[in-house]
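Side project, low priority. Logging it here so it doesn't get lost.
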Amino acid sequence: MKNIALDSILQLIPSLSYVDTKRLNYSVKQKLDSDIVGKVVAEREQVVCECPHCHSPEFVKHGATAKGIQRYRCKGCKKTFCSLTKTPLYRMRKEDKWLSYISMMWDGVALRKIAKTLNISLRTAFFWRHRFLRMPDTNQPSSFTGIIEADEAFLPESFKGKREIPREPRKRGGGRVPLVPILISYQRGDKFTYKVMDRNTKENLSNAITPLLTEGCCLCTDGNLSYKSIVEKLDINLDHKRIIASDGRIVDGIYHIQHVNGFISLWKEWLGRFRGVGTAYVKHYLAWYIWMRDKSYGEEDLWLKEATGQMYWLQRE
């Protein structure tokens, strides 16, 4: 859609004096510096290198969206797309409230309070939370090297956020609530990953830990015999240190699982503010906690860059 007001301003620029042009330039610069969302989207446009539908590098500019975001048309599949297509921010509205929302996410504010403060629906608040957490959840390490610590965490099964509960209703205090196992793995050097499992079985544990292990690494676990059986069946050479409490919490002065146990303890303490998390969304809250551990409060623009897939900030000093 043609912006008549902008065209009028552009036509007046040649008639401005040097002083007035500097004032206009200063006002425009202030506007650009304050528009963090627009800046992140513009930076995303600079790194678009392929069609998100067919991954073809051949595409041309194809107008702009109603919000002014550059659109493209793929020469291969003929589909149109913009810089936010297939990112968590695609078709999200009310971008003027994104930064305020992210700021409250840093503080772990409840969804109902966020919805009331920003004047959005509870459904929108829930939808935004898991949109912003989608990208951090997909950026887990695929393999580890060196010394690796692994242990399981357990949370009560919960269907919070679900419209239907796939089980018979229980009375308060009636019966034991099933526990959901979560494998937390840590590579020395502050690198975490996780896997939410359906059941606490050796097969599920093997499927979760095996892809992370590489030749020559050292796996530190507790006394769970399942790990011993898993390691013995592997086709790679690695060292396995079983940390049994009765024998001491540290082996040879270096091998232990205190980092991963400390992480689990702090994560559960942080998780308590939400008063229960649905099992289907546990991985998002793990991604949330891991992402914020190494970031400084107030870096909302980094969260937006993460949501758009811009990972270059990870390389900063």
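Brief comment: The longest helix spans residues 18-34.
Revisit when time allows.
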